[in-house]
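Pipeline run #58 for the internal structure catalog. This entry was flagged by the ingest filter as a single-chain record with no existing model, so it goes straight to prediction. Upstream metadata was stripped on purpose; only the residue string is passed forward. Reviewer on rotation: M.T. Logging verbosity set to normal.
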Amino acid sequence: MGIVSMLSDMTHEGARSIYGAYLSLAGASAATIGFVTGFGEFIGYSFRIITGPITDRTKKYWTMTIIGYSINMLAIPALALVSKDGWIIACILIVAERIGKAIRQPAKNTLVSFAASQIGEGKSFAIVEFLDQIGAFLGPVFLFITLLFKQGSNQFSAYSLCFAILGIPALLTLTALFLAKHKYPHPENFEAPQKEDKTFKIKKSFIFYVIGTSLFALGFLDFPLITMHVSRSGLIPQDTLPLLYAGAMLIDAFAALFFGWLYDKYSIRVLMLSTAISTPFALFIFGFHSLTGIIIGVAIWGVGMGAQESILKSAVTTIMPKENRSTGFGIFETSFGICWFLGSWLMGILYDISISWMISFSMGTQLIAVLLFYFTANLKKGTKD
């Protein structure tokens, strides 16, 4: 599943790196681009509160994963077929790609959690996240190279070629997925049944955890706002901005491995450490007008992303019983995604009003999240809650 994640991230993270410029050339306004990308993320997360319970009820883990990945992967190379003024069709395909992720994500995470029972939750999700972010690094780099070779040609055609090329890792993703299903048709058997009531119950530790992760998401900026600020600062050349993102993804990958290893030793308390480390990223990026500040800020932003994609999911596996885990992932990821969307929107507004307010909001929400992770760890340690 780590290889599946790597190939799929090459596809959709590569595509995300050129969505804005492509939609603009296709005739979409700036407001439309902002709405579509934001709405796609919102749907991609919020729909999981439906797909998670469906997966738990049906136990069709592979079916849900395959359906989601098929939509997710095929929508991207389909963008190569969109005509010059076909921005409406392009927007539909971009939203469809996010819907595909919403369908497959709770089931996919549950499949990984079953294997995690063999080697440890932290290590398992860290390995998947490491490979995932290697893909997120390679995808934009490959497109960067493709666009270099296409310099001087029609820009819209160059972007269409990029989407067509992304069809290669997309098909490899689906191939690897079917091979995994063939080799491990019943991964739920990795984990022994738990002697618990199968009725879904909200535990106190899970409530604290979801509130904590939601506050973390609320104060954790999405990268487009960072690149916009860095671009305005003039400290880094415009054509090297994709490499800044690629560097953040590399740090993300190695941070996921490190914190995943720590998680298996110290459990949920590791979240307090990773969140505390990433908290001041906004201060370094937006508070200091210097290249050094930007590099430090982006580096610790990458640490926060690594924790987000690995140990945040590991903790859901630790807290939620096997029978209700997809539902737990659905609730967690829906709340996280909604707060990420609202937080990025609010901090974009605060950026125009006062950068100091935006920095304070970002750091304040993450510090409160550290406190809630502390409560979660104590509840989980001493009780069945």
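catalog note: The chain has a mean pLDDT of 86.
catalog note: DSSP finds 18 helices and no strands in the chain.
status: ready for reviewer M.T.
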